[in-house]
Design a protein that fits this description.
Blueprint (H helix, E strand, L loop, with lengths): L5 E14 L2 E14 L3 E5 L6 H8 L7 E6 L2 E2 L5 H8 L2 E4 L13 H11 L5 H14 L16 H13 L5 E5 L7 H18 L2 E5 L3 H7 L2 E6 L2 E7 H6 L4 H8 L6 H6 L30 H5 L4 E5 L2 E4 L5
Parallel strand pairs: 3-8, 3-9, 6-7, 7-8
Antiparallel strand pairs: 1-2, 1-4, 4-5, 9-10, 10-12, 11-12
Helix pairs in contact: 3-4, 3-5, 4-5, 5-6
């Protein structure tokens, strides 16, 4: 991948939630960047903080600490009016196409709402723009007066994509956009996202569970565990040579279509359950389930560092 300039820079981002007397550390000190025009895949088990990270970067959640820079400008320091203008650059596609569309609004009004808020089009121009956006995501422009319940799950997700594209953003957080869809439809939606990326020069943060789909769509992949990033590398490199024991375990669970290879391959089965983010283990959060844990893992938190060019990991094996 050629050297691209950085669009998003995340610096020591934290998002904690107060729950009674406890603190849930959903996102705990993330630092990474996303280059213009690339897709950064983010994977990890449920509850590891992937979606919270995406929402905090867009400031749908106010961060507890840290900063996010968009084209060098701090998103966290913007006032309400400046943030409204910034929203045009940064949008989100939500996980559940059933819950994220207002059932009482027509599809035309759902997509047109963003045009109204930002004063981008009105009257006939607004109608034409909505129809243009529906065509862009391969839906019939004549259906703009229908309601969400008249569409299938895959079609609803396309409506969600059209809504995100209405303000011509540069950066989109795709929060598990295919996990609620049938497998047959998932590939269509991912292909659509890739076509739109090429056509409009979009930059994605693609959050997902499905490791093979993430490999397919992403330029680089970040792996999260209990609110922290444990590894980040080019997609090919990460899948060929994962450094962190957690990444190795995750990747060992992907089925390989070759039965010979599949038979000889060793599956890494992690012991125990994911600890609570309210009370994470001391030192390295992964040590309680790590097959390679050493005494220092419980005492000292591993440092996030570049182990090989462009390949980052937080693990005592590489210190």
């Amino acid at each position: 991948m050629e050297k691209r300039d950085t669009l998003i820079e995340v610096r020591n981002l934290k998002k904690f939630f107060k729950i009674g007397d406890n603190t849930l550390k959903a996102v705990n000190d993330l630092s990474f960047e996303i280059k213009r025009g690339e897709t950064l895949g983010v994977v990890g088990e449920s509850g590891c903080g992937k979606s919270t990270a995406g929402r905090t970067i867009l400031r749908l959640y106010e961060p507890t600490a840290g900063d996010v820079l968009f084209e060098g400008q701090s998103v966290m320091k913007l006032n309400h009016q400046e943030m409204k203008a910034m929203r045009r650059n940064m949008q989100m596609i939500f996980q559940d196409p059933y819950a994220s569309l207002n059932p009482r609004m027509t599809v035309g009004d759902i997509i047109g709402e963003a045009l109204d808020i930002h004063g981008l089009a009105s009257g006939q121009k607004r109608k034409e723009r909505i129809q243009e956006l529906l065509s862009l995501v391969s839906l019939n422009p004549e259906h703009m007066n229908r309601f969400p319940h008249e569409f299938s799950g895959g079609q609803r997700q396309r409506i969600g994509i059209a809504r995100a594209l209405a303000v011509e953003p540069k950066f989109i957080v795709c929060d598990e956009p295919i996990s609620a869809l049938d497998v047959s439809v998932q590939a269509q939606v991912v292909n659509l996202l890739q076509q739109l990326q090429e056509k409009m020069g979009l930059t994605y943060m693609f959050i997902a569970h499905d490791l093979s789909m993430v490999k397919y769509i992403s330029d680089r992949v970040a792996v999260m565990y209990l609110g922290k990033m444990v590894e980040l590398a080019d997609s090919e490199k990460l899948y060929e040579k994962p450094l962190h024991p957690y990444t190795q375990a995750l990747l060992s669970a992907i089925p390989i279509p070759d039965p010979e290879v599949e038979r000889k391959r060793e599956r890494i089965v992690l012991q125990g359950d994911v600890p609570s983010p309210m009370n994470p283990p001391s030192g390295c959060h992964f040590r309680t389930r790590c097959p390679k844990a050493m005494p220092e893992c419980s005492a000292v938190e591993p440092v996030w560092k570049e182990v090989e060019p462009g390949h980052f990991a937080a693990c005592h094996l590489y210190n």
